[in-house]
Amino acid sequence: MFKKQWPAFVLAFVLPIVAVFWWWGGFNSVSVTETVAGPHRYAYLDYEGPISNMRKSQNAVLDRFTEARVTAGDTISVILTDPRADNGKVRAQLGYTLADDAPVPAGLKEGRIERRPVYLARVQAAVLLAPSKAYQALDDMLEAHGKGIAMPTVELYRPAGQADRIGVFTLEMNR
């Protein structure tokens, strides 16, 4: 009986899952390079808690940008502690990049990261999928050289600007 139903199963369940994974950039490759990155100027809120709840704080920052009528740049997350060391909890600075002449919205702190040598991982994928792909690729590259991921890391996400396109995620770790 299953032999007759497997095409329907594939069409109804497997194919849609694979299609969504493809659409989100799940099959896109990650480039990992040694380069120089920065500087970054950003406005942020401090965050401490589960890595899975960071989105709420990120949205609160965007609300402050909107209220202040300040243009928000790329999403930026400066991850200060390793979530693997504390059961998925992190300390981070969550915000958006700012133009050099833009004011810092009320209630937010200003952060600056100078130009520095980094390991950089970049992937075009959905914001929910991209970090795991980038961290895994970076870890694989570092492991081949006898190293590992060290905090802090800087995560930047540049949306595509169109609903039918996915953005670019960049992960920076100091060398």
Average pLDDT for all residues: 90
Task: Tally the beta strands.
Answer: 8
Uncertain ranges? none
* Percentage of residues in DSSP E strands: 25-35%
| Helix/strand order, N-terminal first | HEEHEEEEHEE
SS-based class: alpha+beta
Number of helices in the DSSP assignment: 3
Helix coverage percent of residues? Answer: 25-40%
Walk across the major sheet and give the strand order: 1-6-8-7-3-4-2-5
Molecular shape:
globular
**N→C terminal distance:** 58 Å
Radius of gyration using CA atoms only: 19 Å
Largest sheet: 8 strands, antiparallel
Describe the structure concisely.
This protein has three helices and eight strands. With 175 residues, the chain is of the alpha+beta class. The relative contact order is 0.21.
